[in-house]
Amino acid sequence: MAKEHIPTYNLKTSRAVHREPVQQDDFGYNNLPENRRIKGFELYSNHGMRPAIGPLRSTFYRMGISMRGTADVQLGLEHYQHGNGTVNFTFPNQLFSKYNLSADAFGYYLLFDTDYLEELVPAMNMATEFPFFGFHGIPFFQFEPAALQQIEFFIVRIHEELQGDKAGREKAIKMYLYLILLEARRSYDRQQLGSDAHLSVTMLLVRRYRQLVSEHFLVYRQVADYAALLHVTPNHLNRTIKDHTGQTASDMIAAMQLQEARSLLRYTDLSAAEIAYHLSFNDPSSFSRFFRKATGETPLDYRKAYLGIASA
Asked: Which residue ranges does the record assign to the HTH araC/xylS-type domain (predicted)?
């Protein structure tokens, strides 16, 4: 099946996926008049955000900051829980989910297109300058109090620029966004999050395997494929993953397939049979057994339940 069937949202099409139909909040881009909107950039608070998002892909970058409360985030194979002062980053074409927002949860999130900061950071250099926007970086971490305070200050200034009509507002918004990312990078560096020096050879292998599966699971579907990429034997890779995670290497590939299946069932009209072939199952019944074993329900029951919730 052609890859274009994978549900991938741009800024224009994603709003209905992450925002409730009725919006009361006027922060940032929310309820912003058309003539004040900025091409390629959006800012929101979590007021008015849907309680569950994804699994889905987007064509843009995302930065989410938790000021208080908790929420669960799934980025590829990695699960994280937001707390006070945590931040998560996603980049184009990455599988992303957010759910289980606590009643007291409050935070902000910023969305921007790949070329939005081109004048300041060429798109090809984004993951180099800001490593949390890449498969090899750490996409979730805790801000120190001073860094969090500074970043919130810049977010509020972006909100003020969006609401106003001062000269140079669009350039100012880009500059504030760059300063937010720069502050995040400095916090990242202070915490030495990009260093693998503290990891054993074994844990480096586990981390790299997770990253490769998250990135390539639609192309490489066998453990042997990843073993070749990692220059180890399939048996060594299987044993290492099992010993350190409790899962088999195949389990991790299946976990990404399951996320992809959920995304396709939620956000497309593809039949279960089409999804089965897209995920390289031999036949629809094999896919149905796989999905039911993992979730306790058939693909169609899962779709019906989600659509019932979404339309309620």
From this structure: 207-305
